[in-house]
Amino acid sequence: MSADTDPAQTLESLANPPVDGRELIRFDQVTKRFGDNTVLDRLDFSVDSGKHVTLIGPSGSGKTTILRLLMTLATPDEGTIKVGGEYLTHEERGGRLVPAGEKHVREVRKNIGMVFQQFNLFPNMKVLRNITEAPVTVLGLSADEAEQRARELLELVGLTEHIDKYPSQLSGGQQQRVAIARALAMRPQVLLLDEVTSALDPELVAGVLDVLRDIARTTDITMLCVTHEMGFARDISDQVLMFDSGRVIESGPPEKMFSDPEQERTREFLSAVL
Ligand code: ADP
Predict the structure, then answer these.
(1) 246 close to 61: Cβ distance less than 8 angstroms
(2) Phi, psi at residue 27, to the nearest 5°?
(3) What's the pTM value of the predicted model, to 2 decimals?
(4) Percentage with pLDDT > 70 across the chain
(5) Domains of the chain by residue range
(6) Which protein residues touch ligand 1 with a CB less than 6 Å away?
């Protein structure tokens, strides 16, 4: 990106164009169990495109499982998930819903990017290749196109000068910013953020959250975020969902949820973390 490019202009083109206000994610009666442990219990919720939704709630209440289901790192035992109007783990065939084939899952999942708690960069690849690998192999971009996209994103996350380094040569905060750039390089419609600052030293947290605030403010990408950073959640969220034992017990705009929640359980949780 040249020095005179308006960063906001570049940011706007990061996400695949969503249709405004359209429902981008829908969970319908989703149940997930691990053995006897019912982690999600007939969960219904939806996220409209362009919105930033934060999932809060005690540890073990099922928040990460929701993101993992969306990434197809886990599959629901019951119920259905739709992304962009398409079933994620099912296909409609002859008027019936059947488990989806791999190709279908891959197509729908292309719309979803995720940033993990532990960065999960490829340790044997330099920063540039970490970002270009999937756009080239999955989306079929040319090496030049992928590199140009990577350079724009590295500028966005403030890491241009680290393009030729290996992940092990970067701080945790820098690695996490590469991971954000890597997820965005696929131009997903939705970005899933799973406690992305919880593995970082405290002094590195603000830099990562600032990058995410910028992305939330200046792009139309949809965000689904699990975080314990309540100040961040308050800043970026359109809606906050409070989870307890695998169900949404309360939801609302951040001003209401953080200042005047209805449920005693939400009040208890917030007074413990705020
Ligand atoms: P949260 O993100 O709200 O802390 P999680 O979604 O990570 O909650 O976990 C919800 C519950 O599911 C926890 O009790 C956890 O131990 C359990 N769980 C998550 N993943 C697995 C797994 N792969 N195998 C068995 N239990 C799991």
Answers:
(1) yes
(2) -100, 130
(3) 0.90
(4) 92
(5) 1-110+240-274, 112-237
(6) 34, 37, 39, 57, 59-65, 226
Q: Is 251 left (phi over 0), alpha (psi -120 to 50) or beta?
A: beta
Could you tell which of 56, 64, 194 is best to mutate to test the pocket of ligand 1, judged by most ligand atoms within 8 Å of the CB?
Answer: 64
3-state secondary structure 128-147: HHHHHHHHHHCCCCCHHHHH
pLDDT tens profile 6-44 = 444 444 445 554 445 689 999 999 999 999 999 999 999
Do 1-110+240-274 and 112-237 come out as alike in CATH topology?
yes
Q: Which atom of ligand 1 is nearest to the CA of 57?
A: 3
Q: Which fold has domain 112-237?
A: Rossmann fold (3.40.50)
Q: Reply yes or no on domain 1-110+240-274 having CATH 3.30.1020.10.
A: no
Q: How far is the CA of 31 from the centre of ligand 1 (A)?
A: 13
Ligand 1 center from residue 115 Cα (angstroms): 18
Identify the three-state secondary structure at position 262.
coil
pLDDT digits (tens, 9 = 90+) for 181-217: 999 999 999 999 999 999 999 999 999 999 999 999 9
DSSP 264: H
